Amino acid sequence: MIIRLFKPPENHSFFLFGPRGTGKTTLIKESLPKEQTYTIDLLDFDTENRFFNRPQEFSEVLAALPQSIKWIFIDEVQKIPKLLDEVHKHIETYPHLYFALTGSSARKLKRGQANLLAGRAFSYSLFPLTAAELRTEFQLDQALSFGTLPKIFSFSQEQEEEKKLFLRSYATTYVQEEVQNEGLIRNLQGFRRFLPIVGKENGNILVLQNIAQEVGMSVNTIRSYFEILEDTLLGFLLPACRRAIRKRQKTHPKFYLFDTGVKRALAQELNIPLVPGTSEYGKAFEHFFVTELVRVNAYKQTDYSFSYFATQNIEIDLVVERPGKPLLFVEIKSSEHVKNTELRSLISIVKDMPQSEGICISREPRKRKVGPVLVCPWQEAVEAIGL
Q1: Would the pTM count as exceeding 0.85?
Q2: What pLDDT score was predicted for residue 287?
């Protein structure tokens, strides 16, 4: 059994957002006491239709529940945003009841001006599985090639074709059609042209004008598409570092998709093997580790913030601002032996920046120190960074 890093609160209502397939429903069902939980599944057509037509029926259902019920679990709450008005009312009326609310899109709730309960419910995100959660089941090369959505682990290591079919289906039916079904876009054909480019541009510095020209759409439309991917938790923007470190720093953000396997499916790269020592393997390793840090930071609520730093000649993969700790510069290299000459830029920046540290994440077997920079095996790096 995989134990997730996210633990729901025991005595407080909460939202749990995340892309479909990350395990929200399974986690909630395993975490809440079954005999004290009443479930409303809005993925069920009849249930959705009933509450959509008569949101007030929610009050009638709650009024009939036995006193033993402590939790009301509403799955995919974004399907009926008006239901949140009823939830708000009952949080005030029934202080002995708590609400667990899951959804794959906070954007629809926000755009529909839904009642987000004004702090009466905590808000969390769920992601694909982390290496820490998978423990002995985690295999780096498998994670780089196929990602870590829970469904992937229902297949054996040898069932690579089945994994590819699942990821292609996910990229088609969810990332494309479900985003449209939520009413987030109108031009599905344009969005379909956009998605493979997102896969190929993953981890690169974004130049929206170039992407707009390639897709044949306006810059504003492309910007809105990236906003949709962010709001549905299908990816995130990594901003450029705002601290003045060097002259002529780059200012455009990077974009990372939420899962390495979904990225390869969107980029139509699933049939291309990832070979250690190649640039594609290095990009996949960087993608994996950046998403790993973002996930663990969110689960542990350490309030770290991430950016990248680049000039015309230098690029540092991550700049990590850690409250109460030195600024951290992070280089991510997939090599089993990082040459000391490859660390020159990182060493130079750490020496020039007061109260800063440097770390190089790699596939080396053990830690070593090169000047002010720690070269660290990726298995120990999350802890070394302080998460």
Answers
A1: yes
A2: 98
